[in-house]
Write a structure and sequence with these properties.
Length: 72
């Protein structure tokens, strides 16, 4: 998270978080691969369903971001 500060007062003016759409294709593929591996690991360790569902949603969101990026 990047924070912008005023020089004299030191107070925070705004918070900037990168948008998923602005990530490069290589980053999207890397994150997708990492998510898939983590899902496999969670299945192997018999993790609770709530963790598996959260990872599935993350995987779907990354697939959607990747497909939108490829359509450009």
């Amino acid at each position: 998270m990047n924070l912008s500060f005023r020089r004299k007062t030191g107070s925070v003016t705004h918070v900037h978080q990168p948008n998923v759409e602005k990530e490069s294709l290589s980053e999207l593929f890397y994150l997708l691969n990492k998510s898939l591996k983590r899902y496999g690991y969670l299945q192997k360790c018999e993790a609770p369903d709530v963790l598996l569902d959260a990872e599935k949603n993350l995987f779907r969101n990354r697939l959607l971001a990747l497909s939108m990026e490829l359509k450009k």
